[in-house]
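user: Kindly work through both lines:
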Amino acid sequence: MEEGGVMAGTEQDGEAVMETGQTDRNVLTPQALSACCQQLFASGEGEQAVRLAVQAAEASRDVSILLAAGLFLARCSSRHDVTVAVFRKALLLRPSTHPAMASVRGEIKVFLAGALMAAGQNEEAMALFMEVAQTCPEHRVLVGEHLSMALLEAGLADQAEQVLAAWLKDGSSSVSLYNNMGCALERLNRSREALPYYRKGMELSSRHEAVSFGYAIALLKAGDYEEGFARYVRRIPRMPSLDCWFYQDLPRLTKDVPLEGRHILFYQEQGLGDTIQFIRFLPEIVRRAGRVTLAVLPSLARLLRESYPMVQVCLMSDLLEQPEQVADYDFSCPIPDLPYLCDLKRPEDVPPFSPYLEVPVRRRENFAQLVEAAVFRNGSGGDRSHSGRRLRVGLVWAGDSRSSVQDVAADRRRSSSFAEMMEAIGPVEADLFSLQYGVRRAELGGAGAPVVHDLMESVQDMADTAALMESLDVVISVDTAPLHLAGALGREVWLVSRWDACWRWGDQGERTPWYPTMRIFRAQELSLGPVLREVGHCLRQRVAEG
């Protein structure tokens, strides 16, 4: 989990509109619809929750039901066109003929404007926001909250800062306004400036988890690991479902617990990259604990079994089906809590680096042969530099596809495309290898594209990806799991970082203590095009230097 969440209003958003509806209480209430959708979503049934909200909106002419469905979709679905349609329907059903309806219509317009912004219809969205701000002064705070949230999710943190500065200057005040200003400044790589705004938000709502988590991320990005990780571990774990027995029935491990003789279950949380980054702290826990078990996703299981033979590694899916094992463990803990448990206080205190993931010799040799065969088939084996062969470069242009609104927005900011990366990098006298996984691998092989070898059909998991990386000289990647894998292996890796960089890379600089072999190329704008061209220039320069 790499960034704090932006916020718009409170859990009561839309309540006034819902109260005006004439709902048949024997059929469906907006409260029941919201509760059911949220419960399904929290249980890992996100698609079913979205279907339920859409079906309710299609079947109803009750504004309160439409608002409940639309607000859920706006928070939890990336189907922005559907969310727009739901809010438009609600607006049509709440006519403007009655003066008393002006305030209600203004609230609906704010929600519609946010959905339009998420759908990329910025001009209409901004016109609606400004109309409501001018005609419904009672909704000025609501407009500021939703407008700043929409700008932040669109990657326009500089514009969000300007809006928030204007709203706060005129005396507007709310938890969401302060939170969003903190988020804007953190994304503008001014994390120290963000901290006072998060503190003001926490003063207004000390128990608001989103503000506390955003504050933690800003602290971490500013390099204050001691307080940052202490707050970071207060988060609710980000998992498909929190109904799992090892979260519900086992106490969460804390730093003050004596580990001698205890059996600790560490489980996968957040992305694969988070696990790869933080698993380096596991040996310290193993030295102190009686037993340690890791529960991870299939793509990481083999790699971690081979790298940490002193612990038991199991699959999350298998563990979920064995609640009777609860008596075997003393504590559970999400893997990203490891730096806190090991008392990491400052970036310079990250332990001295040595590669901490293992690749068996036989697998390394197998992929080395595949790489050699690919180069030979392309006929570039004889085109050699003075070092004996051409540079071999691995490429990753996109992160994993995700479904939640915030994740989709973040992925849009961090990911490029195969065509964009090739336009920036090629032509280059090097052997290029795709390390792209998931649905974005289908972008390979476009007309006129440079030759990029694709051995990923031979890759079953991260253990295979690691073996393939061992035969490459440089890995160039956007901010996603293979980047962490290359860094953990000690391979030379170039990060193409979005301009609102993840906390772990700090606010500035080309280097990071997490991976000393990494070079960070930081975008200076929303588009990744210019920074990719910088990467291409440096790669061609590297090739020319031999």
Remarks:
- Residues 361-378 form the longest helix (18 residues).
- The radius of gyration is 25 Å.
- DSSP finds 25 helices and ten strands in the chain.
